[in-house]
Amino acid sequence: AKNTTGPSDRPSDSATHQTAGDGVATMTTQQGVAIADDQNSLTVGTRGPVSLEDFQLREKLFHFDHERIPERVVHARGYGAKGYFESYDDQSQLTAAAPFSEAGKRTEVFVRFSTVAGSAGSPDLARDTRGFAVKFYTDAGNWDLVGNNIPVFFIQDAMKFPDLVHSVKPEPDRGFPQAQSAHDNFWDFVSLMPESMHHLMWVMSDRGIPRSFRMMEGFGVHTFRFVTASGESSYVKFHWKPKLGVQSVVWNEAVKINGADPDFHRRDLWNAIEAGDYPEWELGVQVFDDAFADEFDFDILDATKLIPEELVPVTPLGRMVLDQRVDNFFAETEQVAFCTQNVIPGIDFTNDPLLAGRNFSYLDTQLKRLGSPNFTHLPVNAPRCPVAHFQQDGHMAMQSLSGRANYEPNSWGDDGGPRENPDTGYRSFPAEEGGEKRKLRPESFADHYSQARMFYRSQTEIEQQHIADAIVFELSKVETHAIRTRIVASLLNVDNDLAQQVADGLGIDEMPDPLEPEATPIDVATS
Ligand code: HEM
């Protein structure tokens, strides 16, 4: 059934058009049977029992009972919009990726912005990292750039992701706190994981409470590869830069806005698009090679590190304009399924151990969340280029194979269905790999503080004050004294003044020793 009334054409007199006719559609059951009475159950006698025979009632309740699907295990609170990416130039010297093949080329996109920790009904202005996920419907298949508004991540290895997320979600016995940062478990975890310090500084800064989705940067975070048609590869880091600049609110404002309008960010995006004030970002890449990677002080595979733009400037590739709101929040924003493993020829992975875990995790969770391996049949997830394969059946299959062949090789010639294409097909970059299997973090991932310090010191005085205030505020909610002290000990490795301000703010009189800079979680727990 199609709901024909949109927000702009809502009738002002809601008492009109309560029955069909005169251009108003007839309401039907899911089986298409016209409904005469949508107000009353079928009863026996004037005040008698409801008859089980009432198939309209049963169908209506049955469907309602099944309206909910699991919310995303992270990034549950989000908002989507549609638009296009436009390439500035032919970038074939850098990558064979379809969106960048010629100047002015447009590729349709779906974008979903989100918070990470809160539930689907949580307020928009929580202090948190924001998701910035873009699905490019390219003519070579779907490419998802599933990024955040902060260029680094809390952890280096996917093995720790469930622990990180458990620590920010409500505690299992009490079911609170919902505020992810004001949290004994969260601060306990990060105090025991020195690698989280860099991301922590960003999220405690003004970046943690954006003014609007339209005023956030986006980052691919991991190092990816660009690969040209002739097989040459370079490393890239993706950056989205908002046309409106990066803007934030202060905590005092955020608390009030959350109370007065918990939908502030989604309303802002909706209103901007409805007003024709289309949000816009520039997509750019930092491009570098093995020689740079070998000389760089940090490991380019370590997602807790960024590459300073002073060292490798961002090369602009094109712009993204969001000029359409969604037509249906559930069908599009809720059912969209982004996945880091959705890449196209011209784009490839690196050995970042966090990325490897993500490549597994998204598809896995989406099978549960969307309930069927056929979620690529949903319009928001379906590629906009030809799709042909022998995968078949399963729950809710909406696209079916035609003809006899559902395997290959086969003997059915032109009727034998699709075949592999050595010319245009995806080929992994043939990086050479080798070595012993082991469970041990590389030495090159060991420095957890230099970039946290670099970030803190890059901030203006007032921005530094906001960071100190935020940490004091959040830690003042933490009841366990040892956790507060351990954070201060960790901050001593970032900046003495910052550590001192936090200690003063919390009334910690005796300054702890700094944590061993290269401490592992096990060392930290016992120190
Ligand atoms: C959503 C896993 C790290 C950005 C999700 C979801 C899972 C997940 C299971 C829910 C997906 C869904 O239900 O559709 C992981 C794992 C990570 C990781 C295992 C590390 C090992 C990251 C990082 C970023 C990121 C580093 C940013 C670069 C996002 C975004 C979403 C998301 C933006 C929301 C997508 C949407 O709007 O639907 N992640 N994640 N995640 N993740 Fe991650």
UniProtKB/TrEMBL annotation:
Its EC number is 1.11.1.6. Keywords: Heme, Hydrogen peroxide, Iron, Metal-binding, Oxidoreductase, Peroxidase. The active site is at 75, 148. GO terms for molecular function: catalase activity; heme binding; metal ion binding. Residues 434-443 have a biased composition (Basic and acidic residues). One of its GO terms (cellular component) is cytosol. The keyword Repeat does not apply. Decomposes hydrogen peroxide into water and oxygen; serves to protect cells from the toxic effects of hydrogen peroxide. Belongs to the catalase family. HPII subfamily. This is Catalase. It comes from Ilumatobacter coccineus (strain NBRC 103263 / KCTC 29153 / YM16-304). The chain holds residues 53 to 579 of 741 of the full protein.
